[in-house]
UniProtKB/TrEMBL annotation, chains A, B:
Gene Ontology annotations of biological process type: amino acid metabolic process; carboxylic acid metabolic process; catecholamine biosynthetic process; serotonin biosynthetic process
Record SUPFAM superfamilies: PLP-dependent transferases
A Gene Ontology molecular function term of the record: pyridoxal phosphate binding
Keywords carried by this UniProt record: Catecholamine biosynthesis, Decarboxylase, Lyase, Pyridoxal phosphate
Pathway info: Catecholamine biosynthesis; dopamine biosynthesis; dopamine from L-tyrosine: step 2/2
GO cellular component: cytoplasm
Enzyme class: lyase
Protein known as: Aromatic-L-amino-acid decarboxylase
Subunit and partners: Homodimer.
Family matches, as InterPro entries: Aromatic_deC, PyrdxlP-dep_de-COase, PyrdxlP-dep_Trfase, PyrdxlP-dep_Trfase_major, PyrdxlP-dep_Trfase_small
Lineage: Eukaryota, Metazoa, Chordata, Craniata, Vertebrata
Cofactor: pyridoxal 5'-phosphate
Entry similarity comment: Belongs to the group II decarboxylase family.
Gene that this sequence comes from: ddc
N6-(pyridoxal phosphate)lysine modification, residue list: K303
Length: 470, 470
């Protein structure tokens, strides 16, 4: 394919992309395929000779679309949102063309430098403390990681390294292996599985802190665990706080927990993967209070800030550049390869630049607020129906609800919802109860989508409750 | 930006992309900027209100392009190639529009299933042993990782887990920490820094095996180290072989090393990040012999197989699905989140599908062969000039060469090359000598680019040798 053909096919693809997104509501949001469906639809080997481009495009509809869960459909309320916007897609096209690998400053200076400045822009939008910004000295600040899992892992490795050095400095008779065997990390019993996995990778113990009735970690319970572990000869070194948990969007009390971590020489990392985007609104910023006690902080603009996944999957800021990061080898220039697990990296900050400029802070705030209003609207609908109950505080764009009754009843309701394929939800467990999660996800969602989804849910509920076994 | 505007701006962007790539030779391949250049060119904060799209596009030329190292210029001979092709860019646009997050099968079945089948296609192109393929049972096989660094880390973690279980099964009195403190991993003294880093992350010792005069690990030296370590009470458990090292594209002797690893219960991982793409050509496939002894194998199609970075940054296959992978929790369906560090993942196999079908195996082989021929052409030019020497076997697309003389002389030559910005090279160290690496990189490179590059190098050499201090 030469440049001329690319010009033609590229423009066709732009229309295909716009057509797909404009008409996404016409497709069932959830696919109706069995595991292994795709293998029989395509050859078992690559072709020897080139095929026609038209055949490939036909196969997108024949082979791919039947197996797609349409995350950007306004009928998609599962998981958490994944961002999508036209400016981000345009920036991604440019990123693909430039195709530089920004593992060091010299490998493409613009790739490193725009990233540093964009993370400062974002840090200012969030009103992060100064120590989290690179500022004019141009070092430190934030970095784009691939995913929140990687950010958590990096923070845990940095904390592990710092703890070993600190403990060895005062206990020169302790070997590194002895220290490692006594280190203990903590996180909420509501934290994402990737936090536990980071500890597994790093080869350190991790304990789950029980949460209160709002699914938040509180100081008293945490302090009790830390004291007991210290009495047992363990070495507490790391706490991963969650702001906006995956099951219910609960918020750990970082304002209480942060000072405790600081006193105990424990690294506090804040994982705000979903909720972080909302902190650009002054009315939600108090949820981030306590960040001034944190050593590192991350959230995913690719979830809720209109920047498509893979461009800006996550950001991590490290407070105080002087802190010894595991891989951080400060030099004259920022070489981001030392800040992350992978070596290679794309020019992902281009997407942030395009989106921030095309929306402006006002536009981004309006987007967040609209989603929160729609979640509140759904909450009101649920509360007005006495057969249902709300299962957790509705703070941002997630509503956890269930039918008053058994877990089995709620499992049956979700099964029917999934089978109908008109809307898509996923469940969670809260205090041993099977709960439905309704997350506001799509960029183009409006009130009537929420209303229609609720009508659908109540219709299926009606049918379910009519049946003899209930 | 609504769909109508995206249709217009998207088509403009397609032309911008084609214009950039068509005229890339007009730009100096290496930028002329100082660290921190970009910060002063843009505001210190995000705008409050939306800006004009035209202003953003103007800023691409004003702010970004001066700081770009043009990896796809035919005058770029640095590092290793990073892939770029129009079919991959079209697939990436589609990937961005679908925007599904394929962390589990259900999150978008097509995303998981196409990946499994594409890795089988690729495995067949490479004539991998059957045990590396998923086949019709649809499980196991390969997975796309972000980068080779992540693949190495995953393989080391899997090996660590397997070793601990195996050793504990026969030594029930040994604690996990005791085992970890005695585990030892090995790799070549020519291996990429990410291999050493994987061991640091995993908290295990890693030793570098000295290489022979071709910069390859041989059995005798390796066996000697393993025997000595065992005698010292250590537990050898992992060897990362390199096929195509970063400095000189050297090949460890995996046919000798593999049986040794198997006998010693050591996991053998093969890192063929750059060279792997060449193994689709029958004449280069013997370089992969010995893979039948490996537990895992990876290479980067995003380097040399025309699939842009970030779509298919790397592939890893694990021989025998039954092998206990660290995170692998086999179920009815393949949930790739258990195969990798990140949770989220894009629909990266779309790029493989587009590229394989638009080029066909013949087209891909022709592409590899052309690059190898051009490297041989450059090698001949160097060999014909008695002032220069070739420093390592030229097997694929990399030529390591230097001026006969001091390291300082060669450093000066490279400095002049870099300052002229007509071509771009990076150096390496081989046996303590400063060596220039000439890697065939660009998709659109032709013989005349190689000839012109050589003329430029000899012209600068002439000027350098004229100067009084030489």
């Amino acid at each position: 394919m030469d440049a001329e053909e690319f010009r033609r096919r590229g423009k066709e693809m732009v229309d295909l992309v716009a057509d797909y997104l404009e008409n996404i509501e016409d497709r069932p949001v959830y696919p109706d395929v069995e595991p292994g469906y795709l293998r029989s639809l395509i050859p078992t080997e690559a072709p020897q000779d080139p095929e026609n481009y038209e055949d490939i495009i036909k196969d997108v509809e024949r082979v791919i679309m039947p197996g797609i869960t349409h995350w950007h459909s306004p009928n998609f309320f599962a998981y958490f949102p994944t961002a999508s916007s036209y400016p981000a897609m345009l920036a991604d096209m440019l990123c693909g063309a430039i195709g530089c690998i920004g593992f060091s400053w010299a490998a493409s200076p613009a790739c490193t430098e725009l990233e540093t400045v964009m993370l400062d822009w974002l840090g200012k939008m969030l009103q992060l403390p100064e120590c989290f910004l690179a500022g004019t000295h141009g070092q430190g600040g934030g970095v784009i990681q691939g995913t929140a899992s990687e950010a958590t892992l990096m923070s845990l490795l940095a904390a592990r390294c710092k703890a070993v050095r600190r403990i060895q400095a005062t206990n020169s008779d302790m070997s590194e292996m002895e220290i490692l065997s006594k280190l203990v990390a903590y996180t909420s019993d509501q934290a994402h599985s990737s936090v536990e996995r980071a500890a597994l990778i790093g080869g350190v113990k991790m304990k789950k802190v029980p949460t209160d009735e709002h699914y938040a970690v509180r100081k008293d319970m945490f302090m009790k665990m830390v004291e007991e572990d210290k009495a047992d000869g363990l070495l507490p070194f790391y706490f991963c706080a969650t702001l906006g948990t995956t099951p219910s969007c609960a918020f750990d009390k970082t304002e209480e927990l942060g000072p405790l971590c600081n006193e105990e020489n424990m690294w506090m990392h804040i994982d705000a993967a979903y909720a972080g985007s909302a902190f650009i609104c002054p009315e939600f910023r108090p949820l981030l209070n306590g960040v001034e006690f944190a050593d590192s902080f991350n959230f995913n603009p690719h979830k809720w800030l209109l920047i498509n996944f893979d461009c800006s999957a996550m950001c991590i800021w490290v407070c105080n550049y002087g802190v010894i990061l595991f891989f951080l080898l400060p030099g004259l220039v920022t070489d981001y390869r030392h800040w992350q697990i992978p070596l290679g990296r794309r020019f992902r900050s281009l997407k942030m630049w395009f989106v921030f400029r095309m929306y402006g802070l006002n536009g981004l705030q309006a987007y967040i607020r609209k989603h929160v209003v729609l979640a509140k609207e759904f909450e009101s609908l649920v509360r007005a129906d006495k057969r249902f109950e709300i299962c957790a505080d509705v703070v941002l764009g997630l509503v956890c609800f269930r039918l008053k009754g058994s877990n089995e009843l709620n499992q049956n309701l979700l099964k029917r919802i999934t089978q109908c394929r008109e809307i898509h939800l996923v469940p969670c467990q809260l205090s041993g109860r099977f709960v439905l999660r309704f997350a506001i996800c799509a960029r183009k969602i409006e009130s009537h989508h929420v209303q229609k989804a609720w009508q659908h849910i109540t219709q299926l509920t009606f049918e379910l409750l009519q049946e003899p076994e209930h």
